[in-house]
Amino acid sequence: MNFNISKERLLKGMHTMNSFGTRLTGSKGHNDFINWLKNEIADMDIPVYSDPFYFRRWEEKKSSIEIIDGDEKINIPVSSAYPYSGESSDQGITEELVYLSGVKDIPKTTGKIAVFNVSNINFLPSEIAFDKRTSYPEDVVLEKKYEGPVITSFIQCFYGMVSKLSGAKAVILIWKGLHDDMIEGQYLSFIADYQNIPMLWVNETNGKKIIEAAKEHKKAKFVLEAEIEEHAFTESFYCIIKGKNQKENVIINTHTDGTNCVEENGPIALLELIRNMKDTVPERTHIFLFTTGHFRLPHFEDIRTGAFQSASRWLAMHRDLWDGKGEHFKCVANLTIEHLGCKEWRDIDGEYKYTSKPEIDLVYTGNEFMDKLYIDTVKGRKTIRTMTLRGHNALHFGEGQNFFTMGIPEISLVPAPYYLCVVSDSHEMEKFDIDLMAEQTETFAKLIEKIENISAKELGRSDFYSILKAKSVSGGYDFSLKGLASKISSVIKK
Fold first, then answer.
1. Which uninterrupted H or E stretch holds 274?
2. Which stretch of 14-18, 25-29, 303-307, 364-368 has the lowest confidence by average pLDDT?
3. Which of these, 259, 202, 221, lies nearest to 59 by C-alpha position?
4. Which end of the chain is more exposed for a tag (fewer CB within 10 A), N or C?
5. How far apart are CA 200 and CA 171, in angstroms?
6. How many C-beta atoms surround the C-beta of residue 347 within 10 A?
7. Kind and range of the H or E run holding 247
8. Strand 170-176 and strand 199-202: pairing?
9. Mean pLDDT on 306-328
10. Mean pLDDT over all residues of the chain?
11. Residues 6 or more apart from 35 whose CB is under 8 A from it?
């Protein structure tokens, strides 16, 4: 195979994707994007196979907060709505604000609007979530503390449940310790099921006004109107490029729903790879998989395959295409492609801005052989900051987890910029680098070519999750319970 990755085609695809708007699961923009992708593949005379789904879709339509101070109404800008939280009537909810300074205040929220501070999770060692295999160049390190809006919202996703049990009518969540610009438009958290209580996010600056009003027992008018579609349509789909070997295959996958230009632009890269392979007869069969439901995981995850990502549903439905039993195909390798072309943006001296570096390519590699294969492939890249990881403490971010847990050796690209889940008018294109996306796509083209000539035995199986003990990702000490205990002891002695 002779791949010729076109930066021009990739950029054109990006603009087309953005033209559909935000592509939340089952939305018009999402369905239009899927139809365009399917038509592009069909125009190459490649059959497309679809798995339709129906689910209960929730989407914010209007939100606002007004503090009532006598005859005066003070508008407080909303940063974003908590997806699938709940909804108010168009008249909103007007009740007293109650700031929860601790557990003791929970009963006070009955019939009122609960106000919570949601502090940035910046105290956990990154080694709790990540176990390093390799970094390239060698000086690439992650932050010592695993933090940011995504992990903060994932860990602290219990506010809706607590408020519902206490009888609160609505919830205001105030980001704390994260730059106001960083959290604007964050579609978080998307891992929780329907909460049945409306919740809105407010930045730290505006949150101080709400807390002050709550301490003075003032009321607020809270509005969160949402569109509910009981039987919304969405679909996963895939196409197959048949190879000489009709027993073994390689699955290349991503998801189609997303919030902005990097989440998720994996389908644009897959489309480019398909264009390059459409007239070839590879050694093995290749399946290109585009799943739905990444932003509605409670409905689409299928734990029968030991994973919690959207591809888990497809794997459970299509065992004949990967599990190797009887006459079934055996998937000998998986390549997962997500979040290409990310620039690194950070809070620097109080300003949220571009650091002039690419975001670190976080790449899960299923075993040591796949790790070496990936690192050898990226060494010729012009732009490269990468760290390879092993699934750790039952954590493995991105759609590659589904294959890793089933023993399929993977190489899974999943950079994690702070703006990953932001919905904005610009689609976050100011944070996107087309040259980097082209290089990353070229890397996966080379991996496809290399895997063609490697036996299933050499590719091996994926390792299991590492537990507790982890090689340092932050340039510090390797993590272990013994090491952590020693560090705590030294701090106490000081």
1. helix 266-277
2. 303-307
3. 259
4. C
5. 7
6. 15
7. strand 245-255
8. parallel
9. 94
10. 95
11. none
- The distance from CA 420 to its chain's CA centroid, rounded to whole angstroms, is 7
Residue the block writes with tokens 């794997």:
315
In degrees, rounded to 5, the angle at the alpha carbon of residue 456 between the alpha carbons of residues 447 and 279 is 50
- Structure letter (DSSP) for residue 28: H
Separation CA 283–CA 428 (nearest Å): 39
Residues β-bridged to residue 91 = none
Sign of CA dihedral 423, 433, 382, 286: positive
Pairing of strands 170-176, 113-119: parallel
Tokens linked to 206 = 């505006």
What element of type H or E holds 289?
Answer: strand 284-291
- How far apart CA 41 and CA 476 sit, in angstroms, is 47
HSE-up of residue 236 (Cα within 13 Å, Cβ side): 24
Task: Quote the strand ranges of 338-478, DSSP E.
Answer: 343-348, 351-358, 361-365, 386-390, 410-413
Task: Report the length, in residues, of the chain.
Answer: 494
Percent pLDDT > 90 in the chain is 88
Dist. CA 312–CA 301, nearest whole Å: 6
Q: Tell me how far the alpha carbon of residue 251 is from its chain's centroid.
A: 20
- Torsion of the alpha carbons at 134, 139, 144 and 149, rounded to the nearest 10: -80
- Which pair of tokens denotes residue 3? 């791949």
* CB-CB contact of 334 with 401 (8 Å): no
CA 306 to chain CA centroid, Å, is: 18
Close Cβ partners of 349 (under 8 Å, ≥ 6 residues apart): none
Looking at 334-433, list the stretches that DSSP marks H as alpha helix, in order from N- to C-terminal side: 368-378, 401-404
Tokens of 166: 């206490």
Whole-number Å distance between alpha carbons of 3 and 448: 10
Cα 91 from Cα 203, distance rounded (Å): 24
Residue 74 pairs in a beta bridge with 67
Handedness of CA 14, 50, 314, 367 (dihedral sign): negative
Nearest to residue 373, comparing CAs of 418, 405, 409? 409
Backbone φ and ψ of 457, nearest 5°: -65, -40
DSSP helix/strand/coil, 76: strand
Of residues 494 and 455, the one with the higher pLDDT is 455
Model pTM? 0.95
Nearest to 181 by CA among 80, 263, 259, 257: 80
Q: Examine the pLDDT at 481 and tell me if it is beyond 70.
A: no
DSSP class of residue 463 equals P
